[in-house]
Amino acid sequence: MLSFFKVYRKFAVFFTVLSIIIIVIIYNTLNVYQPLPIYQPAMVSAELVDSTMQYQKKYHKIADFSLTNQNGKTISQNDYEGKIYVADFFFTTCQTICPIMTDHMVDIQNKIINDDEVMLLSHSVTPEIDTVAQLKRYAKKKGVIDSKWNLVTGDKKQIYDLARKSYLAVKDNPYAGDYDMIHTENFMLIDKKRQIRGFYDGTNPEDIDRLLEDIKHLKKEK
To answer: Would you tell me which of 21, 155, 160, 165 could form a disulfide with 179, CB atoms 3.0–4.6 Å apart?
Structure first.
């Protein structure tokens, strides 16, 4: 009887070790990293995309731009060359979702403060109100670090086109003036090739955590 239990114990140990090995193999197989998607206009809700490109399925990139930041400096794609960045659309007098979005951008800023590969870019959807001086006041109030985060204003048509033809991030406002838009809570993750790699709810802490994890994954891509 004793010998039977000794044999049984050896079998149980062997079976347990084998089970652990099988579980580890299955886990690693199921958790192989999948590259982040490369978003195209056809993959995004039509209400966020200009009608001229709603059916585009490939080759989408962020267009060249030239805008002015909170320090009166001209900001272009050259300032984001070779960078991963998070972009959004806001306005300084917004009292609804913008304060939450900005606070979450501050959180992201603080997490990437020592990461030279990652930057932030926020576009004003009311450039006629958000002058350089207004953006500067807002930046100081919110704790914006100039080397990491540009708040930009400029030509309204250019910002409108960027929002709906490049970042696929705002709704048209047909009941207001030309190039008026209804911004959303979306944060967009842009890779070093100017491609959109993720959309996130800028008011949702869980989405912010997911965005930070996706930045880590994106940095591993060659």
So the answer is: 160
